[in-house]
Structure formats: structure tokens, C-alpha cells
Specification:
Elements lengths: L1 E5 L2 E4 L4 E8 L7 E7 L6 E6 L6 E3 L7 E6 L4 E6 L8 E8 L16 E2 L3 E6 L1
Parallel strand pairs: 2-11
Antiparallel strand pairs: 1-3, 3-8, 4-5, 4-9, 5-6, 7-8, 9-10, 9-11
């Protein structure tokens, strides 16, 4: 499986962006999918995860109510809708897949995911 993110960019505080993650060459139906982010000088941080069918999601507290993760298994796509963006959301955002046969969205360590995209930069100006 290859993951390719898109949709990042520069936006003013309060604005919105929608990140997309395309999974090529393989179906993602039985992979928990996640979004992580990494700001300069900081560790990679869990942002959101979604279960196989999309009926269960988990978010880091700092994005709850502002970000929404979704997926389209037929198209092998995962999305992160980001609203009310803040300067502290500035980071490189990574899409990740966990191929272990587990549907839990509560494993938030980066080491729990074994396939990663190359990342897309999100910059929020104040």
C-alpha cells in the first residue's frame, strides 16, 4: 500500500482546509486509518483515527469539534476536514495505516501504524 497526501497549504487563522489521503495498489477496508502531525522541533502527534467502516472515530483533544476524519473505502480515500484552524495547527500532516487485524481507534502512538505517507504541509497564519 502506498499513501499519498494532498490538500495542504497556507491559510489564515479561522480558515479551513481539507486533506486527502489516497491509498494506491490495495484496498484499505480492513485498515484503521489515522492522521498525525509533526511541528518543527516536536514529536509526531496523533490527530485522528477512523475504524474500518467509519463508524468509530477518535480525536486528540485539541482538535475535537474542529476536525473531522472520514473515509471512502470504495475509492480507497481518507479525508481530514479541518475547520477553525489555529496557528498551533501548523505542522506537516501525515496519513497512516495500521494493517494489524484490529479495529481499535484508541491506539494513538505512531509506532502502532506501519504505513505512512510523505506528508503535506499545513501553515496557519495569525
Amino acid at each position: 500500500v502506498q499513501l499519498v497526501e494532498s490538500g495542504g497549504g497556507l491559510v489564515q487563522a479561522g480558515g479551513s482546509l481539507r486533506l486527502s489521503c489516497a491509498a494506491s495498489k490495495y484496498a484499505i477496508d480492513y485498515y484503521v486509518m489515522g492522521w498525525f502531525r509533526q511541528a518543527p522541533g516536536k514529536e509526531r502527534e496523533f490527530v485522528a483515527a477512523i475504524s474500518w467502516s467509519g463508524d468509530s472515530t477518535n480525536y486528540v483533544d485539541s482538535v475535537k469539534g474542529r476536525f473531522t476524519i472520514s473515509r471512502d473505502n470504495a475509492e480507497s480515500m481518507v479525508y481530514l476536514q479541518m475547520n477553525s484552524l489555529k496557528p498551533e495547527d501548523t505542522a506537516v500532516y501525515y496519513c497512516a495505516a495500521r494493517t494489524e487485524y484490529s479495529n481499535s481507534v484508541y491506539r494513538t502512538r505512531p509506532s502502532s501504524y506501519n504505513i505512512w505517507g510523505q506528508g503535506t504541509q499545513v501553515t496557519v497564519s495569525s
